[in-house]
Design brief:
The chain is mainly beta. The protein folds into 2 domains: 1-77, no CATH class; 81-233, Immunoglobulins (Immunoglobulin-like). Helices cover 12% and strands 39% of the residues. It has helices at 80-97, 99-104, 188-191; strands at 26-31, 48-57, 63-75, 105-111, 114-115, 121-129, 135-138, 142-147, 163-165, 171-174, 179-186, 199-207, 224-233. A hairpin with a 5-residue loop joins strand 2 (48-57) and strand 3 (63-75). The radius of gyration is 30 Å and the shape is globular.
Length: 234
């Protein structure tokens, strides 16, 4: 009696006879009476595979290769929960190593509390360096998001097509005790469904957890801060 075992990349099925051997082959011994087929789980895009040669052990203890002897054993990749946990651990490690900059750099927002209908939303991010060293702040990690009176995000109509802004280098150096202002202007009515006569809570955020200054990577402001302001549309 012989046993044929095979699995494709997604489910178990009968395999074709292999004419060549693989250098990365692993041997697994099965008993003569073992007839149960192994079960395989469906693969995700992150799964890896290793090739196993299956041979049969006879009653006399001699090892005799099976006519069709190749099976693919799959090893399931990391789950979403595991990936999320790893990402959080990396972020916590980054913030811990760069925590002194996150604590001594103060960020504030300057925006008018009244926005005229179908005009540009002008806002400023103001950074005060209370650290004892120079700090490099990225100029490419600013964003905002409006919320209605129920605390739900305002409907997005389309992606922003144009941003009015001053020209800044990728990273701005702020010396100890200095204050630096980033000024921006967005067409919020083009991007969001903002109604005339309603008040919205705008959440402004600077978030940089990855990009570093080429000049001073150890002093780059790799942090995230949020500020909220109530804006009335008239």
């Amino acid at each position: 009696m012989s046993v044929i075992i095979c699995a494709t990349s997604w489910q178990a099925s009968y395999a074709q006879t292999k004419k060549t051997e693989h250098k990365d082959t692993t041997v697994r011994i099965i008993k003569e009476s073992e007839t149960k087929r192994p079960t395989y789980q469906k693969l995700s895009s992150r799964d890896t595979r290793r090739r196993v040669t299956v041979i049969k052990l006879t009653d006399t203890g001699n090892v005799r290769p099976m006519p069709r002897d190749t099976v693919i054993v799959v090893r399931k990749g990391k789950t979403k929960e595991q990936l999320a946990a790893e990402k959080k651990a990396q972020l916590d490690k980054l913030l811990k190593s760069n925590g002194y900059l996150c604590k001594c750099v103060k960020m504030d927002i300057d925006v008018a509390d009244v926005l005229q209908y179908e005009t540009y939303l002008n806002y400023k991010f103001i950074f005060k360096n209370n650290c004892k060293i120079d700090v490099w702040v990225s100029s490419q990690h600013f964003r905002y998001r409006p919320y209605n009176s129920f605390g739900k995000p305002v409907k997005v109509l389309r992606k922003l097509s144009f941003v009015k802004r001053y020209d800044y280098p990728d990273f701005v150096r702020i010396k100890p005790g200095e204050t630096y202002t980033f000024s921006y202007g967005d067409d919020a009515f083009f991007e969001y469904d903002l109604k005339k006569g309603q008040a919205y809570k705008f959440e402004f955020e600077h978030r940089n957890f990855g990009d570093k200054s080429k000049q001073e990577p150890r002093k780059t402001y790799l942090c995230g801060q949020k500020r909220t302001r109530l804006v009335m549309v008239k």
